[in-house]
Design goal:
alpha+beta; Alpha-Beta Plaits; Arc Repressor Mutant, subunit A; 3 domains; 10 strands; about 45% helix; CdaR-like_regulators; DNA-binding
Length: about 375
């Protein structure tokens, strides 16, 4: 990156014009000190490191991707875009990026464009080497993080030796799962963009990340960072699960397993909100390991008939509150007589006895399992576990 910035600064100084360098997908790579004419697009590109889709479409339509040499592009007042001169940066016939000058106050002369063109070979070579270095580093990091989450202890050593993670630091893993339905390439790209934004915000926490088929993984040094950072950066709605902090990077797989579990439970139990910590999941920590068909037989008929939903909600609240009729009546704002009637109906319909501790436990666990499977969807936000 140092070579790129040096070439950009030297060329800008020789021409007396500010310039901006983008890679082939029009992400800002380097830019000179700004003076003279400037529009909203140049300012926003520098601040956000990327132009808007509308501007990229306009520029593509101007032919910059196909141009073998310098090209003047017209202004677009409706986009806040001044006229420009674009010099495509190519290496071995491959397009690497674009060098941009604002073509106003005054317009660039042919001699200035020729001088900028003369700098293209050195700029192309520097940009090519930079893309190779970044690509190689990213690929190695991806492989190491993937191995780390699979429990390969050597992966932690590789990341630490490469300077991607500090030595002797604890690690916490968070998993983000989309709330939307079927995963696809567009969704994976959205998760990738979100995690890259999180990494920029949390650079002091030495973040690492990985995007898998249906979820995204974020690793940070130390205790968990606020999940609000993840939610704010994601272009799509997600639920976030947080694993327990482990004392060293080599144990990240354990925190990952917990975070993934927590995210799965949060996605399946809407009442839990949008973020769950493994340590606070209560009984849900073990319930996902049980087969869904192992429900109390007396509840099957009640779960399949919507008219019995109030009875199930009453039963769950009663069991969550340790069988206290006083607390249940208060929580549901239900008269004690009505509560006893509902509980009696549950006993009759489910062929059970709520005075039997074993029966109460089986009913309670069955209701939580039914929440996880989606068979039981209470109308309130009661989430005790």
């Amino acid at each position: 990156m140092a070579d790129l910035q040096r070439i950009v600064d030297e060329l800008a100084a020789r021409l007396g014009r500010p310039l901006l360098l983008e890679d082939r997908v029009q992400r800002v790579v380097a830019y000179s000190e700004q003076h003279g004419a400037m529009d909203d697009i140049r300012r926003d590109s520098i601040l956000r490191r990327q132009t808007t889709p509308e501007v990229r479409q306009w520029i593509r339509a101007a032919g910059v991707h196909d141009s073998p040499g310098p090209l003047r592009t017209p202004g677009a007042p409706h986009l806040g875009l001044l006229p420009r001169v674009c010099l495509p940066v190519r290496h071995a016939d491959g397009l690497l990026g674009f060098l941009w000058f604002i073509d106003a106050e005054p317009a660039m002369s042919d001699q200035e464009i020729a001088e900028a063109s003369a700098a293209m070979p050195a700029l192309a070579l520097a940009l090519f080497h930079e893309s190779l270095a970044v690509g190689l580093a990213s690929h190695r990091e991806l492989e190491a993080v993937n191995g780390l989450l699979l429990g390969e202890r050597d992966a932690a050593r590789q990341l630490i030796e490469a300077g991607a993670y500090p030595q002797a630091q604890p690690v916490t893993v968070q998993v983000a799962r989309p709330r939307t339905a079927q995963p696809d390439d567009a969704l994976r790209l959205a998760l990738e963009q979100g995690l890259l934004a999180v990494r920029r915000r949390l650079s002091g926490h030495h973040p690492l990340h990985l995007v898998r088929y249906d979820h995204a993984v974020l690793l940070t040094a130390g205790p968990p960072v606020s999940a609000d950072e993840v939610h704010a950066a994601m272009p799509v709605p997600v639920v976030v699960g947080i694993g327990r902090t482990r004392p060293e990077l080599a144990q990240a797989a354990d925190s990952y397993r917990e975070a993934r579990h927590a995210a799965e439970v949060t996605a399946r139990v809407p009442g839990l909100g949008r973020t769950s910590e493994w340590a606070r999941l209560g009984v849900y920590r073990m319930l996902t390991q049980l087969p869904e068909q192992e429900l109390h037989p007396g509840l099957e008929g009640l779960l399949d008939d919507a008219q019995y939903l109030p009875l199930l909600e009453t039963l769950e609240t009663y069991l969550d509150l340790a069988g206290s009729a006083v607390a249940t009546s208060r929580a549901l704002r239900l008269h004690r007589t009505s509560l006893y009637y509902r509980l009696q109906r549950v006993e009759e319909l489910a062929r059970t006895d709520l005075k039997d501790g074993g029966e109460r436990l089986a009913l309670h666990l069955s209701l939580k399992l039914a929440r996880l499977s989606g068979r039981y969807l209470p109308r309130d936000s009661h989430t005790s576990s």
